[in-house]
Every structure is written in structure tokens, then in C-alpha cells.
Design a protein that fits this description.
Number of strands: 0
Largest sheet: none
Shape: elongated
Order of helices and strands: HHHH
Distance between the termini: 26 Å
Radius of gyration: 15 Å
Helix content: over 70%
Length: 92
């Protein structure tokens, strides 16, 4: 899914580049745990759960709904990953 790139760019950006995420929830998770990789772990668990569900549901779910759900999950994760990567690239 598209959020895998977001996982890595957030972890690398916060740990090595001094990047501070703009999302409120991400900042709260970092502050609560004190570990820059906490969001990486949280998003990884959610991503694996979604992929697992979609893999199991592919046989039982209507084909059109399965592709629609897959598209929307990618469409939600991709803009955040692209925006964060561009911010780090441009030094903003």
C-alpha cells in the first residue's frame, strides 16, 4: 500500500534529518512515547492488518468493492507520503 513509503520517510526524517511531522496525531504519538519509531510501528501494524483483511476477503467480497477499498486506502496514504517526502527534500 501507499503508506509503506510514509512509514519509512517519517522514521528516517524524524531520526536523522530533524523533521517534525505536521500531523497532530503523529506529534502526539511521538511526545507520548518519546520514540521516533513509534508511529512507524503503529502504521506498520495497521497496514499489515488491512492487507491481511483484504487478502482474506478477496474471495468472499464482491470484486468491485474489493478494488474500490484498495484504491481508497492507497489514495488516503499516498498524498501524506508525497507531501512529507517533498517537505524533507526541500528542507521545509
Amino acid at each position: 500500500m501507499a503508506s509503506c513509503g510514509t512509514l519509512a520517510q517519517n522514521l528516517i526524517g524524524v531520526t536523522f534529518l530533524g523533521y517534525s511531522p505536521k500531523l497532530v496525531v503523529t506529534n502526539l504519538v511521538y511526545q507520548a512515547t518519546g520514540f521516533a519509531g513509534s508511529t512507524f510501528v503503529l502504521k506498520l501494524v495497521v497496514t499489515v492488518g488491512i492487507v491481511w483483511y483484504l487478502a482474506d476477503a478477496k474471495e468472499e467480497m464482491n470484486h468491485t468493492w474489493w478494488w474500490l477499498m484498495t484504491f481508497f486506502i492507497g489514495a488516503i496514504g499516498l498524498p501524506m507520503g508525497v507531501r512529507g517526502s517533498l517537505r524533507m527534500l526541500l528542507g521545509a
